[in-house]
Each structure stands twice: as C-alpha cells, then as structure tokens.
Design a protein that fits this description.
Number of helices: 12
CATH architecture of the largest domain: Alpha-Beta Complex
Oligomer: single chain
Number of strands: 10
Shape: globular
Helix content: 40-55%
Distance between the termini: 55 Å
Strand content: 15-25%
Radius of gyration: 20 Å
CATH class of the largest domain: Alpha Beta
CATH topology of the largest domain: 2-enoyl-CoA Hydratase, Chain A, domain 1
Number of domains: 2
Largest sheet: 6 strands, mixed
Structural class: alpha/beta
C-alpha cells in the first residue's frame, strides 16, 4: 500500500479570515500536529502579517485531532536520506538553530500586535506547550494536557520554556514542571494559571469564536499597546514601566478608537470601535 502524499505547508497550516479574526489551524492530526521548519516559518509569517494588517483584529491559534502540537517534527523528510549524512554541527550551529527556529516562533506570538488566543484541543508538548502558553489568552478543552517533555529526552527546554513558565507559575513550580516532565491535565493547568478557561471539548471552538468576536469588536490599538506593557512588566524597573505606560497612553490617545471611547462615555452610549 502506498503512503498518503505529503500535504503542502498551506494545507498543514491552514489560514482562514472572517470578520476581523484570523484563524491559524495546525492540520496534521496524524502526527499530533508536530511542526517542521516549513510549518513553523509559515506560522511566523502569518503572525507577522496579522500585526501589519489593519483588517486583522485578533488571531486564534488552534489545531485538529487529538493533539494541539507535540513540538518540533524531527523526522527526516521523504528523500532526505539520498542526500547523504549531514555534517556534525559546528560550534554555534545549535544555538543559531534555536534562535532562528523555536525562539523565533515564540517571539512571533509574543510580539504580535493583535491579541492571540490559543484554543488547545489536545496534547500540547514541548515547543507545542510553549506555543500555547505564549498566547495572550488560553482556552483548553477538558481533554487537553500540557507536557514539559524535554527532560524525558535528556534535553534542556527551548522555545522560551523557562522564560514563560517562570512568569506564569513562579520559580519553584516551573522547576517542578521542567524536572519531572509530568503530564499536566487541563483542570490542573487552570489551577496553576497556565490557562484562562477549561471547557468541554465540544464547545472549544464555539468558546474561542465568542472570545475572538468580542476582541475583534474592541479597541485593537489599545489591546496591542496594553499587551506590550504587560509583557514588559516583569522585565523592567518601575521608572521604565511608568515611562512606557505614559508613552503608550499618549500613542493610544491619537487613535480614533480612543476618541470614540471618550465620545461614547460622554454621550452615554456603547462605543463602536473600528480598530483604528
């Protein structure tokens, strides 16, 4: 029996847009949505495009099947063996690969100027867990679980794992999750603060859509500026944080949405934000 043909990167990382919401869907359920370099780079491009597109007001990142994303797909591509064995890595090669690969993916989520919602439908392991945790809001299906899997393979976490976990759960819990690499079911992830909400599997997409539509009707520029302030909050001193806050407020007051918000308050009516 012949193997199924390899799907294109556009098919395995689907992009759909409607009503201000960009949906990025990992669609390789047979591999639990492990991502290779081409798929990773497509996600990065889509997130950067969402930042630049004034019509895009929120991004939803989700997947099909039993897995959200089980990390990097390290399997050789068909025909790769014919090219002969690769040379041993030279000093600096591995670090460069991490910077340009896993870290670039997580940075694209953190740096996206639009709110990014993760709708976690199943297993999120390794880089896949970090991809979810880097999102601004995380909705998990009841069957989802998060696995900081690196120690099981004798590896150090990459893709910003220590950075993200320490900020989300604190130093001691981050070390526990990294050292033991135990499965964290969705209900436990909620208690730990790794996710915002846990919902039945059957309503995951509906809930993500409702949250996305609420955000898409909101003040997009204000969201982007506030996201940057929160992301920076644990990295800078108070004086810097206050200065950046004041600068963000000034920038935002030049937007039409800020003016509309003030008008609506004065006129005692709901605001109608356009994202500009």
């Amino acid at each position: 029996m012949s193997e199924a043909p390899e799907r294109s990167v556009q098919e395995s990382v689907r992009h759909e847009f409607a009503a201000g919401v960009a949906w990025i869907t990992l669609d390789r359920p047979e591999s639990l949505n492990a991502i290779d370099a081409d798929q990773r780079d497509r996600i990065i491009r889509l997130l950067r495009a969402a930042s630049a597109d004034p019509q895009t007001r929120v991004v939803v990142l989700t997947a099909t099947g039993r897995g959200f994303c089980t990390g990097a797909d390290l399997r050789p591509k068909p025909g790769a063996a014919a090219a002969g064995p690769a040379r041993p890595p030279a000093p600096g090669d591995v670090a460069r690969t991490i910077r340009d690969g896993a870290q670039a993916l997580i940075a694209a989520v953190l740096d996206c100027e639009k709110p990014v919602i993760a709708a976690v439908n199943g297993i999120a392991a390794g880089l896949g867990a970090h991809l979810a945790l880097a999102c601004d809001l995380v909705i998990a299906a009841e069957s989802a679980k998060f696995i900081e899997i690196f120690a099981r393979r004798g590896l150090v976490p990459d893709g910003g794992g220590a950075y993200l976990l320490t900020r989300l759960v604190g130093v001691h819990k981050a070390k526990e999750l990294i050292f033991f690499a135990d499965d964290v079911p969705a209900a436990e992830a909620l208690v730990l603060g790794l996710v915002n909400r846990v919902v039945p599997d059957a309503v995951l997409e509906k809930t993500a859509r409702e949250w996305a539509e609420r955000l898409a009707a909101g003040p997009t520029r204000a969201f982007g500026l506030a996201k940057n302030l929160v992301n920076r909050a644990l990295e800078v001193d108070r004086a810097t944080a206050f200065r950046e806050e004041a600068d963000a407020v000034e920038l935002n007051m030049a937007t039409e949405d800020a003016r509309e918000g003030v008008r609506a308050f004065v006129e005692r009516r709901p605001p109608e934000f356009t994202g500009h």
